[in-house]
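Researcher: Last one for today. Full complex below.
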Amino acid sequence: MTARRPALRIAANLLFALGLPAVAVVLWGVWSARSDNRFLAGPLAVLDAFRRTWIGPAFVDDVLPSLLRLALGIAGSIVLGVAAGIAIGSLRRLRETLGPLLEFFRAIPPPVLIPVAMLLLGITGTMKVVVIMSGAIWPILLNTIDGVRATDSVMLETADSYRIPRWERLRFVVLPAAAPRIMTGVRQALSVALILMVISEMFASSSGLGYRIAYFQRNYLIAEMWSGILLLGLIGILLAVLFGLVERRVLRWYQGMKEITRA
Amino acid sequence: MPDGSPLLRVEHLRKVYASATGDVEAVADLSFTMDHGELVCIVGPSGCGKTTLLKCLAGLLRPTSGVVEMDGSPVTGPSPAMAVVFQEYGRSLYPWLTVRGNVELPLRHQKLSRAVRDRTVSDALEAVGLPHAARSHPWQLSGGMQQRVAIARAIAYRPEVLIMDEPFAAVDAQTRADLEDLVRELHLTRGISTVFVTHDIDESVYLGRRVLVLSHAPTRVREDLVIDLPPERDQLTTRALPRFTELRTRVYEQIQRAKRGPAEAGPAISVG
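Model: Here's the assembly. Have a good evening.
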């Protein structure tokens, strides 16, 4: 393959990636300019509000605490979800015992846990992290269980025949074998975590992105409200980019193998 | 080490799988012994319980009754004195590890110095002709090369017995011939005792110093045949020897009889 073709492809991809958003922004501008609805703000007004609202002390007071809770919630979900998933996935007894219970908890929409968590933990940062984890853990947990269960029997027999000790077996066989599924779970968990971060702050808080957006809405600061939504979108994109980088590193073998089977 | 006692002794081995629809007797009553430094091929009709036998030898399955003894002590689980090469190299090598990582993994828990471990891995890769592929991943290699990696992993483990389960069933004929010669070479130069399970009659005669022909399931040893071909073998001349043809005919007939029914027992044809 020549060097020019990937460069061209990247340019084309970029055009596709940015073209539609650009068109959408223009349409948004035209629409808001022609509309009498005072709850619609134009792109320029929102951009201006964005600069005024978020660049400055609000970043430290509201955005950073939100991001910290989000990061803690995601990290906690990954650690707990993977650890429990490996235990449940490798022990049939545990799986059979916990199966119905897991189905039940997974079926509960996590936002309804917010009032409960408020009563139990108070209106604290811990409560919000717990709420984020209570929703984000499920896709990771369930995917890890499936990934561990789907580990190739010959791979496990090979590990047995070479008497690979428990810890190395986990580190070098079970965990990497389940990694593609785990990453799928983490990807789903990221969006759940972002949603729960905002909702938990809207319910009960005196800081945070969700709190700010609700505050702006109640006080008819329409452009500011929209700018908060814009910021949430940007955080979502940032998460996806970070995830993509990690995934590329962790699953390099998996992508390479898929490419070869396809060729 | 060689002191006259057998390396491997299998006596009245029986394996019954319990299932919801009734018990299945995979191995009925199997006995044989194997000495140090032997290369024994086990051949039998498909579905005759070869894999079950092999897993019992390797300690991966508990026999229902009977004994598997290694150097006089019973095999109750996977032993450091055995290494298994599976048929499905694609499922036995770990795709997230490099070739070197795969060969090294079973050595990690052995108390070896870093230098010795490195040397053992390099030496094993050298022995199978893959020193240049150490940093590749298994899926970047051809099937034959992947099976070489699996063989390198097995010999780096320095087992007393190498157990191979139809290792070349999934590669093309030319690669297969090369791999057969590799097994013979490793056996001759390193004196590794080898149990080689196959369904290929020619392969069993070409490789083995002894061929055990198994019956249809429930499995017994139908014949224990000494392969009196010269130890120096090569694909062209050995396979053209009249004695080779006689031996393969003999094995073939035994397997045909085995397929027809378990009722018939014992050798009925004299060779010579």
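The interface with chain B takes residues 152, 154-155, 157-158, 160-165, 168, 172-173, 176-177, 179, 253-254, 256-257, 260 of chain A (CB under 8 Å). The mean pLDDT of chain A is 87.
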